[in-house]
Structures are given as C-alpha cells and as structure tokens.
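fwd from M.: "can u put these together and see what the complex looks like"

so here's what she sent:
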Amino acid sequence: MQAKPTALKALDIASIVLLAIAGYLALIYAPEELVMGQVQRVFYFHVATAWTGLLGFVAAGVAGVVYLVTADEKWDTVEVAAVEISLVFFFVTIVLGSIWARPIWNTWWTWDPRLTTAAVTELIYIAYFMLRAGIEDPTKRARFGAVYAIIGAISAPITFLAIRFFRTIHPVVIGSGDPSAQGTFAMSPHMLVAFFFALFTFTVIFIDLFWNRIRLGSLAGKVEELKLSILQ
Amino acid sequence: MFLDQSTPDTSVYMIAGYTIFFVITAIYVISLAIRERNLKRDLATLEALKMEQEQQAAAAAAAAPVAPGPARPRSNKPKPTNKKARRKQ
C-alpha cells in the first residue's frame, strides 16, 4: 500500500482542529437556550451528523449507479465506504436525538414520522451489510449491493422531508414546520454560527473518513486478490 | 413557585450526548486503524508467501531432468576380436 498522501494527512489534522473548534462553539460560544437549557446544545452535533449521514447514503446510491454502468470495482469500494461512515453518523444522530427527547418530550423514543423514518433508514443500511455478507461471489455481491444502495438512497430524502410532509412533534429549526412540534426554538446569531460551523466541520470529517475508508477498501481488495493468486 | 419560568437543568443530558458522540467516533476511528494495521500485516505475509512460492517454483524448474540431447556418434573403431584386447579396452 502506498504511504498516506500529504493531503490526507493534512485533512486528518484539519478534521481534529475543526472538531475542537465546533465543540467550543457548541458548548461555550453559543448561548444557553432558555426553555430547554443545556441539552439544546446537543442539537448542533445532532443535525450535523444527520446531514453527513444522509449525504453518505445518497453518495452510496450514486456510487451504485456508477458501478452498474461501469462495472468498475473501485465504485463498489466507494459505495461501501459511504454506507459504513453514514451508518455510524446516523446512529449517533438517533442516539443524540433520543437523549435530547428525554427531558424535552419526556420520553426516550416515540413513533413519530421523523424518528420512524430515521430508524427504518438505519435498519435498511444494517441489512445492506447483512446482504453483502451473505454473497460470496465478489461480482455478484457488488452488483446486488449497488442495486440495494440505489433503492436504499430513496430513504434519505424521505427521512429529511418527513417533518415537512407529515404531522410531527419533531421541531423544524430551518424553515417552517408543524406548529404542534415540541422543542422548536429561534436561533440567535451566535447559535447560527455554531450551527453552520458544525455542518461545515462534519462535512470535512466525512470527506476525511471517506478517503481513509476508500483506501482501506482498496487495501482489502489487494489482499483478497493476492490470496486468490496464491491459492491458484 | 406557581409560575416558575426558570431554565431547567438539563446539563446531564448534554454531557451524556457529547460523551456518547466522542466515544462512538473514537471507536470507529480506532476500528479503522486496527483494520488497516491487520490488512497491512496480511499483505506483508501474503507477499512473503507468494515470493516463497515463486522461489520454490523456480527451484523446481531448475532441478527438473534436462531434455535428451542429440545421440553421441559411435566410434568407427573396429571391435577387438580376441579376449585379451577386449579386457585391455
């Protein structure tokens, strides 16, 4: 395997620095929300991880389309990398949301349209890895995975739009939502800074992890190839 | 107070949220590093194995019997007829 590119090393460092700044902005710089208290600060990372999670699921769908068109193995590696990282980020989103909901909604979980669609999306992508694990032939596995990722990507916009289409208690902070939503708040300029900086930071972190994960996938492919050549 | 509008103390949930975020992220990053280390180790082992296999194949090819060459020409010398001369030869 080739040595880590300098750009990737720089991106690793930038991600750590940006995460530290985003943490500072979310925990110290942004003012305390008067109705919800400190737990509102969870919102900055909750939305940012959700954004990167959904971004990755869509990216996996696009990689799936490109794989089916080109039949190039590297797009399968890209697809797997996107799904894996998004699965982790989206899991964090659900957990952070649940922690926020406990003091605000007085429950850890409720079958609200947004929460339900988010849980379904997470389960869809857990099943993606189960499907891949069940297929031995690499070409067949990549083809089935690509089709599944394309269909699965539909769940991302559904989850995003669930709070705008359905009656829900989940707050819509950007744009207008259901008036019966609980936990809605207006963002002050300082809050907006923390919010958009967190979105930017998590996009950079996603790109960094994505690049690292693609390299890992290529290395795994190389090992697999070598194993097969030795066995033959 | 009946109309108490003070901000609730929800800092425990905030701490729990950020702790979980950092723990999950750290676990994922560590898992990436461990997988990379293991794959690099596998790659080194497999490359050594492949080299060994190639060396064995080369050695086997060198040790294999050489293909028979052209037949040696027979001597035109007439065979000795008597026993003594045959023994001398």
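replying to her w this: Chain A has seven helices and no strands.
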